[in-house]
Amino acid sequence: MAALPKMSVMNVSPAAAERVRALLAKAGPDEGLRVSVEKGGCAGMSYKMEIGEPLPGDEVIESEGARVIIDAKAVLYLLGTRMDMKSTQFSSTFVFENPNQTSACGCGESVELKPAGEEPALSAVEP
Questions:
Q1: What pLDDT digit, counting tens, does each position of 21-80 carry?
Q2: What contacts 24+ positions apart, CB below 8 Å, involve 49-52?
Q3: Which range in 38-42, 71-75, 96-100, 102-106 is most confidently predicted, on average pLDDT?
Q4: Measured on CA atoms in the order 58, 41, 122, 82, is the torsion positive or negative?
Q5: Which of 94, 89, 121 is nearest to 109 (CA)?
Q6: pTM (2 d.p.)
Q7: In this structure, which topology does domain 10-113 adopt according to CATH?
Q8: Rounded alpha-carbon distances, angstroms, from residue 61 to 32, 103, 120, 126
Q9: Where exactly are the structural domains of the chain?
Q10: Are 41 and 110 in contact (CB under 8 A)?
């Protein structure tokens, strides 16, 4: 019986892959765009990106010639996420369509995330 293909932690849109390829044009052969989440901002967490090599436990996604590395500690927060690009006349930025996001701050710099598979907290209701 043939093995099922491994599902990616995150999907990368063609526009995001194009931008990642441009960012990595002068990077080393083992480097990629490393995506992680860190505590901070008014909503609790923010996405962090940097050029780097994968560390043990990281997930590596190859999409249309673009290499994206997912930090091992961020995998549960990014399962099912789609990475895309948003462009306006004056700027362009990566955006994350994340099903694990429960809220975001008004400025868009930070988000509240729950690990995939974790049920949202229920509030106590009096009978």
A1: 999 999 999 999 999 988 877 767 888 999 999 999 999 999 999 999 999 999 988 899
A2: 49/94, 51/23, 51/24, 51/27
A3: 71-75
A4: negative
A5: 94
A6: 0.78
A7: Hypothetical Protein Aq_1857; Chain: A; (2.60.300)
A8: 9, 26, 28, 47
A9: 10-113
A10: yes
